[in-house]
Amino acid sequence: MRLKIFALTGVAAVALGACTVKDEKDKAGDPTATESAGVTREEMKVEEPEGPPVTPMAAATVIQSQPGPDGSQVDLLSVKVTGDILTVTLRCSSQEKYNRKSLRVAQVSVIDDATSQRIGVLKDNEGNAMVSNLSRSGNSDYDNMGVDCTSKPGVMWAKFPAPPATSKTVSISFPDIAPFDGITVQR
């Protein structure tokens, strides 16, 4: 038993001695050293980890711009077919004032330039128009899509049944926005 106590005392002395040596080294040159009396630390410099720089997202390419509601500008960003669905994406901005507009979904359309056929907005299985910021009413003819036109541009989109592959261009019509004519469809 005495041997165990002696061994434990020896281990404790070595551990305390190591702490004392470490404290002396810390005080001598380590900027993160603690004072023996307590809790103060010298200020540490934190360096950011190095890695590849963050690349900002590329600005959207504008296909065509048209005047919009209340002096705003509407930029056509994309007209693309995926499967059997044509998606039209636009951006609305205004430097003059904040514009919040409701556009009647029933008046939104794409015209197949090859056949002059008007194509209305696609609806999902519940009968909801597939547009951004849909605001339902009691009658689907009066459903609206909300559009924010501010100095921080608002994005809006609508989905349509895709025109046939033989149709190379379409014209796009939104109420209160000048038409986008002869737009090439990406497939």
Q: What does the largest sheet look like?
A: 4 strands, antiparallel
How many helices does DSSP assign? 1
CATH architecture of the largest domain: Sandwich
Please state the overall shape, judged from the principal axes of the Cα atoms: globular
Mean pLDDT: 76
Into how many domains do the coordinates divide? Answer: 2
Strand order of the largest sheet: 1-2-3-9
The SSE string, one letter per element, is HEEEEEEEEEEE
Region (Disordered): 23-54
Describe the protein.
- The protein has 1 helix and 11 strands, in the order αβββββββββββ.
- The chain is globular and about 40 Å long.
- Residues 1-27 and 31-36 have low confidence and may be disordered.
- With 187 residues, it is α+β, with helices and mostly antiparallel strands.
- The protein folds into 2 domains: 1-30; 64-184, Immunoglobulin-like (Sandwich).
- Helix content is 15%, strand content 34%.
- The longest helix has 28 residues, at 2-29.
Identify the notable features of this structure and list them briefly.
187 residues, alpha+beta, Immunoglobulin-like, 2 domains, four-stranded antiparallel sheet, 1 helix, 15% helix, 34% strand, globular, disordered N terminus
Put the structure in a nutshell.
Residues 1-27 and 31-36 have low confidence and may be disordered. It contains one helix and eleven strands.
Secondary-structure map:
Blueprint: H1 2-29, E1 64-67, E2 73-82, E3 85-93, E4 99-104, E5 109-112, E6 117-120, E7 134-135, E8 144-149, E9 154-161, E10 169-173, E11 180-184
Antiparallel strand pairs: 1-2, 2-3, 3-9, 4-8, 5-6, 5-10, 7-8, 10-11
